[in-house]
Design a protein that fits this description.
Length: about 525
């Protein structure tokens, strides 16, 4: 019968255990010196070798021909323990044997001397699952067991063990196995099984396994089921990294403030039976990766993805500030908590994206801090940030930027107007759509827009539309123009305003304080 790779390649000696030298060397030295503890506690994350080391130790304390602290695996006792013929080594699953009666039976059995081996060894796996009564029943026996009994406890959650248990054991903490060590073991297994694994695929498996050798070999087993020539692309497909384009698309929507597109994507995912909590957790992981990229110089070792995905994430991370990423992570973490409490998952997710795509709707402390950060960045860069969005029916002051120099600027048709509109899409996509069929000319220090939309001037005076348009013009031309509107028919709907005397340069600090007060934030000297 076929055996899974993680079972077939389970370590048989301490020398076979990968990445835990600080533990295996100590155990070998104790065995060679004959200074064995009566109770051991092995703790660490899953798949790091706890149970394997427990079984090796159980054989080693009973081996008839110990070799440098390792069991020989050839004597009758070693072979009998491996095959299960010798019953003096008992492995107990505490998850299903966690009651007081189970521990009382163990205590009574421990009083009998071993039949064939030197020691009766009890391996209690997932020991943290024992009940309080079972722990109390185990205490006395664990502290002073018979001379012929050894206990080996293993757990992934050592914090759940009572201090009275911890104090009676010699504790060994298993660390997560380094990716290089896991990749080396994968290559060793591949050579022994007769299939090939390229280096990038081995490293990707190692990073996905997150320090667990068992998880790595299980993933390798899945890959072998599809092909004996294992590539990074195959690993990516099996690990479920493909089909994550929606994460990049949603992140782009948040960056551009495209709420309509974000809600359309969520609707498509919902209709495809995508679980909203899983989507939220995937987005948290995605923005965690962006945070890592913005925070460290060499992020590849901290992110589990293919090389092409890493490049795509690096490009996307450059469009965010670290403060913005942290704010988004906070909103998503809060949403994830709400989803776990059983609220309407689709509505909760949609509300989160409306907040993320329209920050002015969010009055939380985190959102206000994000706006303050944006104001600080504006002051540092010398570009005055947009004023708060006006409520429906209200208008904002028309002038928000320092006027251009008083000398007359070259007049004529503005050939770069299409570039201005393309840049405007990143700042205000609806306004860019409204201006899609317009043209523009330079008249002195004004940009005159020619459009058949009678309401264009009113639209520009609403919210921060004029500010976004000026920013787009400045991004393309490097000049701060004023704006006027004319009808394409030649009948001026609203003539361009007359040239004004240039105002003195704005004080960045005064502008910062004024805009902060506009958000309801009081700043004092």
């Amino acid at each position: 019968m076929y055996r899974a790779l993680y079972r077939k390649w389970r370590p048989q000696t301490f020398s076979d255990v990968v990445g835990q030298n600080h533990i295996t060397v100590t155990l070998q030295n104790e065995l060679k010196a004959g200074k064995l503890a009566h109770a051991y506690l092995f703790t660490g994350s899953r798949g790091t070798g706890k149970t394997s080391c427990a079984k090796i130790l159980a054989k080693a304390v009973n081996c008839e021909n110990l070799i440098d602290g390792n069991p020989c695996n050839e004597c009758e006792v070693c072979r009998g323990i491996d095959s299960g013929a010798i019953l003096d080594v008992v492995e107990i699953d505490a998850a299903s044997n966690n009651g007081v009666d189970n521990i009382r039976d163990l205590r009574e059995e421990a009083n009998y001397t071993p039949v064939r081996a030197k020691y009766r060894v009890y391996i209690i796996d997932e020991v943290h699952m024992l009940s309080v009564g079972a722990f109390n029943a185990l205490l006395k026996t664990l502290e002073e067991p018979p001379e012929h009994v050894k206990f080996i406890l293993a757990t992934t959650e050592v914090h759940k063990l009572p201090a009275t248990i911890l104090s009676r054991c010699q504790r060994f903490d298993f660390k997560r196995i380094e990716p290089d060590d896991i990749a080396g073991r994968i290559n060793e297994v591949a050579a022994g099984e007769g299939f090939t694994v390229d280096n990038e695929a081995a490293m990707l498996i190692a990073r996905v396994a997150d320090g667990g050798m068992r998880d790595a070999l299980s993933l390798l087993d899945q890959c072998v089921g599809q092909s004996e020539n294992i590539t990074a692309q195959l690993v990516s497909n099996v690990a479920g990294f493909t089909g994550r384009d929606h994460l990049f698309a949603l992140a782009d929507c948040i960056k551009k403030g495209d709420c309509a597109r974000a809600l359309a994507i969520i609707n498509e995912l919902h209709n495809s039976s995508c679980d909203m909590e899983r989507l939220c957790n995937q987005l948290i992981e995605h923005y965690r990766n962006l945070m890592i990229i913005r925070s460290v110089n060499e992020p590849a070792g901290l992110i589990v993805c293919t090389a092409s995905e890493l490049k795509q994430m690096e490009d996307q991370a450059l469009s965010y500030t670290l403060e913005h990423i942290m704010y988004i992570l906070g909103v998503l973490e809060s949403t994830s908590g709400n989803l776990r409490r059983g609220l309407n998952r689709r509505v909760e997710t949609e509300m989160a994206f409306v907040r993320l795509c329209s920050p002015n709707l969010d009055s939380s402390i985190d959102a206000l801090l994000k706006r303050v950060s944006a104001l600080e960045n504006s002051v540092r860069s010398g570009v005055v940030a947009a004023k708060p969005v006006a409520q429906p029916g209200e208008t904002q002051a028309e002038e928000v930027a320092t006027p251009a120099a008083p000398e007359m600027l070259p007049d004529g048709e503005m050939g770069c107007w299409p570039d201005v509109l393309e840049n405007l899409k990143n700042l205000n996509r609806p306004l860019a759509g409204i201006l899609g069929n317009s043209t523009a000319c330079v008249q002195g220090n004004h940009i005159v827009i020619y459009s058949d939309n009678d309401s264009l001037m009113s639209i520009l005076k609403t919210n921060n539309n004029s500010v976004d348009l000026r920013h787009a013009i400045f991004n393309i031309t490097g000049i701060k123009y004023k704006i006027g509107v004319n009808k394409i028919s030649g009948q001026p709907a609203q003539a361009p305003p007359p040239p004004e005397e240039p105002a003195p340069p704005a004080d960045p600090l005064a502008s910062f304080i004024a805009q902060a007060e506009g958000y309801g934030i009081k700043i004092t000297n």
